[in-house]
Write a structure and sequence with these properties.
six-stranded antiparallel sheet, five-stranded parallel sheet, 18 helices, 40% helix, globular
Amino acid sequence: METQLLIDLTTELPDGVRLQRAATAIRQAFACDAVGLLMLDSHDTLHLVAASGLAHEALGRRFVVGQHPRFAAILSRQEPTWFDPGSVLPDPYDGLLDDRKGSPLPVHDCLGVPIHQQDRPWGIMTLDALTTGTFDEAARARLQQLGLILQAAVRVTDLERDNRRLRQLGTSQQGIERIGETTEILGHSEAIQSLLNELDLVADSDLPILLLGETGVGKELFARRLHRHSRRSRQAMIQVNCAALPESLAESELFGHVKGAFSGATADRPGRFEAAQGGTLFLDEVGELPLSLQAKLLRVLQNGEIQRLGTDQTIKTDVRIIAATNRDLKANTQAGLFRADLYHRLSVYPIPIPPLRDRGRDILILAGHFLEFNRARLGLRGVRLSYEAERALQQYPWPGNVRELEHVISRAALKTLSRGASRDQVLTIEAELLDLDIPPDPDSPLDAVVADPPSPPAGDPVTPPALDEIPPLRTTVDDCQRLAIRQALDAAEENWAQAAKALDMDASNLHKLAKRLGMKKPF
């Protein structure tokens, strides 16, 4: 394993791949059930950047060190920290091991080691084994040695990321986001990673950006990332909610006014353009601007000058514009609801933001983030999703996107607690508490049966089966799983890794399930 890690140090790899390989290799080498590599941010919060054997939702969690004494203990020492199986310190991974999703951890071995960069704490690595005695003295000594190689892997990954960013931005180092910094945008899907790469490329260009997306996709977060990666990042980003601007005060709000400009104007007041001087002005819901104000905004964008209400004196502006809307502005221009010339000024570089339903397993990462927030807010030992709840989250179309997901998780956590559960337990959110109206999937054999049961031939009586003829539910579920696995293996020509990918499963979990179902001999 050490040899493979050293080879990875000499090979340029995409962000995160080297660290994920390290986590997987270390789990195999120590024959343990889970490995996590957690990075420490400037707010004393740890989050997973690579994991093996942990539930997918764990990748979205943010662990405040002060709330998790095991993590605090690992960070406070230079050498590996082993926790006695009988330790009373709560385990942050309670209910998050992939093989024990939603279930409290039994007595087990837990080991952790700090990772440092340039004499500063970068994060930690944790190892968990359900078999006590896995981490003996020899294992701890070996982990101490591997910690040095892991620190080198982190450093190389950090440098490669910086170099790629420099190649994108030229010689300017402004706006480089190191791997040790936190980001507000969570997601590993191809859709979101492609979008983030595009944002980082265009951020330093100073072009006007138009963010397009449905309600709740998080357009403000993407606007803030654009500003943070731009050459204006040291200046202010001023946000204007155009939908909330009263038409009578909108001009004054944007451009300012002088004393006596209107009734109640008792003093000179700068507008949002002046407040954003040298920085970024974010016009949220720009499609809601009244037509009268659209003409004045267009003139400002064309001339680079503003006039405070009540004076003819002009003020030069140096502002980068980022606009956002959930409307189809192009259609609105054709309908006469939005000025075509202003649309073309704002949409020099339009960027569509994918809806949550197109982001795959990012839904679980975001759900994990909101679960950890609610765990801390409600003072719970832990709160997790059942497998059925995870499936429901991934089947729902999310018309309200990330904002709706946040509300669904918060509501379900409160409902679970209100049913009499103790705050000292690991609470498991079941699918019915999510209150999701999931439409039937016509491509699913099970949903097709529910949606359109076959009609009996005319004249034949419908005879329900006798109770003793109904198979146990577990048998029916096992049969469905065998059929799905068999179909995936046939399509993948018996390649288990490809079959696992098609089934959206971890390969090791597929092997374990197949063995339980009698489809694969035990190793």
